[in-house]
Design a protein that fits this description.
Length: 523
């Protein structure tokens, strides 16, 4: 467990010889199996060194291994519940026993996993396919191995857990599988050997991380191999997708200083209906009917908000109001939209190959989509020069287009759009750009994610051009979410309100303005 002499000298050289006695003291605790005391001493050393601007990266992996000894006995919750004075006061015999069990369990897993892999190769079983038939066959082989060597398994090992962990390591993504299968988990994050996950809007630390960097590398290889990508020092960044549609971003050293970083945003297969979002209090019933109205009457809609605010979920909902029979072309960097209509053409970008060739961008796909006789064009997200192409299409007869973009407020959206249009190769002045935006976009829908994890549509606005000589774009709010004070600080309370403003397309259409059911939407 104690760090190697070479690493010690490197650490002393980086942070200063004044820390040598304390480092020796921490190593002494480790040799005596007093992991709690060693961890406390190391944390103080690292904290002081960082305050002095020293580089402590050489000891990071060592500290992570020390932390894992605590996590394997109940996770961070158990560690945090202990008083500071009691941290590290666990009997030495208990520490030694725990370490022996951890080591024994790891050896059992490794032995059975190796035997299973060898038997699969001998039997000609596919170790890549996750089909139901293949999973059952591999599970059957593993069950036979465990039964044959039952006497080698200690009483404290749960056979079911052992089997699941081996199956996950052989065919899946190891410790990540538990969180990828949990429907309440939205994102999974790996920092080096540590695993974090988001559940109900909160980021939590997983009780188990990866045992070694080698395990993380195997998981990365399993992710990128099926999609034909590579990641190494010369190409340290990669985006991909898991077989279930979840988005993956991987960053490896030297870009990631403390080891590989993997971020997985899970793909939700459940399509939220209008009733579902109303029940979740994400939108009001008036909003849902208004969204149906603007889609049927072919208004151009831009959904905006910050990261993970529910833009794609709302885009799925609004898109499903498109009448059956219309030809829909969707353009995305990573396919996430789930449209119920049959006549849908789905286009997805392509990253360049190893030689840097073959890239297909959103802008290329958008220009091609204009030649595909679309009734509607849906762009998953505008984040670059394709914004100009979309606005030009909106202004030249392709009504009913829908897209999303990041922004901090409905008003901030226009600044973002101007910046993205500036990425194009056309020199346009600010006045022309604002005219394109105000005449192309009809409705802006703003989504907000609150600290407790709730996602709500907090503003729906109509976009209007400014008066003659006024270059500003006007926003007239139709609906908003009004937050109310609550006795429970962690519980969000509020209500959806119609402002009373009637949008222009309703005023200008007698069939709508004289319909009591329509006018009731704005009262």
């Amino acid at each position: 467990m104690p760090i190697r002499e070479k690493t010690l000298e490197e650490l002393v050289e980086r942070i200063g010889v004044q820390f040598r006695p304390r480092i020796r003291k921490a190593i002494g605790y480790e040799e005596d199996k007093a992991i709690g005391k060693a961890l406390a001493e190391w944390e103080e050393i690292v904290s002081e060194a960082r305050r002095e601007g020293k580089d402590v990266s050489v000891v990071q992996d060592h500290l992570k291994r020390l932390h894992q000894l605590w996590w394997q006995r109940g996770g961070p919750q158990a560690r945090e519940s202990m008083p500071e004075a009691a941290r590290g006061a666990r009997p030495l015999e208990e520490d030694a026993e725990g370490q022996d069990r951890d080591k024994s369990y790891a050896e059992i897993k490794k032995t059975f996993r190796t035997e299973l892999q060898n038997e699969c190769i001998a039997e000609g079983v596919d170790l890549v396919s996750r089909s139901e038939e293949n999973l059952l066959r591999i599970r059957s082989l593993l069950d036979g191995i465990i039964k044959q060597r039952l006497k080698e398994i200690p009483d404290w090992v749960k056979r079911k857990d052992l089997m699941e962990e081996i199956m996950n390591e052989v065919l899946g993504l190891g410790v990540l599988e538990e969180y990828l299968k949990d429907p309440k988990v939205n994102e999974v994050m790996i920092n080096g050997n540590d695993v974090y996950y988001e559940r109900d809007g909160r980021i939590l630390e997983a009780p188990k991380g990866f045992a070694s960097p080698d395990e993380v590398r195997k998981v990365i290889e399993r992710i990128i191999h099926p999609i034909g990508r590579r990641v190494d020092e010369s190409s340290p960044l990669v985006d991909g997708r898991l077989p279930d549609g979840s988005r993956v971003n991987i960053v490896v050293p030297p870009i990631a200083l403390d080891g590989p970083v993997i971020t997985i945003r899970k793909f939700s297969r459940s399509i939220f209906s209008a009733e579902g979002l109303i029940e979740n209090q994400s939108i009001s019933r008036q909003m849902a009917e208004f969204f149906r109205l603007i889609v049927v009457h072919r208004l151009n809609v831009m959904i905006t908000g910050r990261t993970s605010s529910g833009k794609t979920t709302l885009l799925n909902l609004i898109s499903n109001f498109i009448p059956i029979g219309e030809r829909i072309v969707t353009i995305e960097e990573m396919a996430e939209l789930q449209l119920r209509q049959r006549h849908v053409v789905r286009l997805e970008t392509r990253a360049p190959n190893i030689q840097g060739k073959g890239e297909v961008t959103v802008r290329t796909l958008f220009r091609n989509a204009l030649h595909m006789r679309p009734d509607r064009i849906i762009v998953g997200e505008c984040r670059g020069a394709e914004t100009l192409d979309m606005l030009q299409a909106m202004n030249t007869g392709h009504d009913g287009s829908i897209s999303t973009a990041h922004s901090n407020s409905p008003r901030d959206l226009f600044t973002r759009l101007e910046a993205m249009i500036g990425m194009s190769d056309l020199p346009l002045n600010a006045r022309t750009v604002r005219k394109q935006i105000s005449s192309g976009i009809d409705i802006v829908v703003y989504c907000t994610r609150y600290p407790d994890g709730q996602r709500k549509v907090t503003s729906v606005c109509e976009v209007q051009e400014g008066s003659e000589g006024d270059e500003e774009i006007l926003l007239r709010e139709i609906y908003r979410f009004e937050r109310m004070s609550s006795r429970d600080a962690e519980k969000l309370e509020g209500r959806f309100l119609a402002t009373g403003f009637v949008p222009s397309f309703v005023k200008e259409n007698p069939d709508l303005s004289e319909d009591p059911a329509v006018t009731a939407l704005f009262s």
